[in-house]
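for the record, two folds in this file. i put them one after another cuz i was lazy. first one right below, seq on top, structure tokens after. the second one comes after a little note so u can tell where it starts
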Amino acid sequence: MGVNALHHVLIRVQDPERSRRFYEDVLLLPFMEIPVGADISSIWEGRPGSGTLLATQVGSTFVMLAPPLEGADPEDRFDELRIGVDHLAFGVDSRDDLRALLERLTEAGVATAGIEDDSVLGNQFVGFRDPDNVQWEFWAA
């Protein structure tokens, strides 16, 4: 088996439209809507008969947003102290891209530590949290 890419990441979010606005307005990631039937949506909160997944493509990887599953705690937020994914990290072309991202994050009131230097990899990055507390990082090569 030759694994050659990460196909997609699905993120459960409390409010898909709130998350979509954040990702589109601040991160400039355009989302498409993928209609789904009851075979998928029936396990979502409220058990709707149909619904919509939101997806954006980052390189060859899709990032998808989905509502909470039935029975999820409505106050739950991401916590990297639990077992599972710790954070998402994406590459950008340059430090200029990091500066532009940092400006949009600042304008949106999103807390960051600015452009940080990673002494292990020798790269620079900007880290921040999305509306559900998932940590995102954008790295310049």
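(here's the note) second protein begins now
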Amino acid sequence: MASNIKNLIAGMGVLLMLIGTFGSGKAAVKGEKNVGVELGYTSRNESAVAGIQFSYAFSEHFRVAPNLQYAFRNNNRDGMLINFDFHVPLDIQSGSKFEIYPLAGLNYSCWTSYQEVWSNDKFDDVSKRKNRFGLNLGAGVGLNATESLRFTFEARYSLVKRFSTTTLALGVAYRF
């Protein structure tokens, strides 16, 4: 666990250096908001994940992006993931509709595991729920297809005690 935290801190340091080096272009418009849906995959229970997303650009170089995801039941587990991430949008080319962004943030995970138990001449579905806080680190790409349509792809690693996971998600959002 201590080595994971050291790796996370080192990764954030590299991320901040990259942001300082490449983060000079105008990638977002101050006050821009996005609301949308996303669909993807989570490695914790090797299943599909679906969610809703929102983002608000406080400046050209800083965006807050909370989202809520549900990991569908597989391998006798399902989960609810609440992410509160911060993006630092970087233009690939000045004036481009395409951007990349590193992300970092906080995570609250609620994982439920299910087990069938034989009792009273029948099987009962018994569940156990674990709730944990953690940290997110990842990156994404965004494409502003039109004035009001945005597509995203995000890869996020959530460092959570005994429940760490990688999530990959495609999203479509309404820009306003």
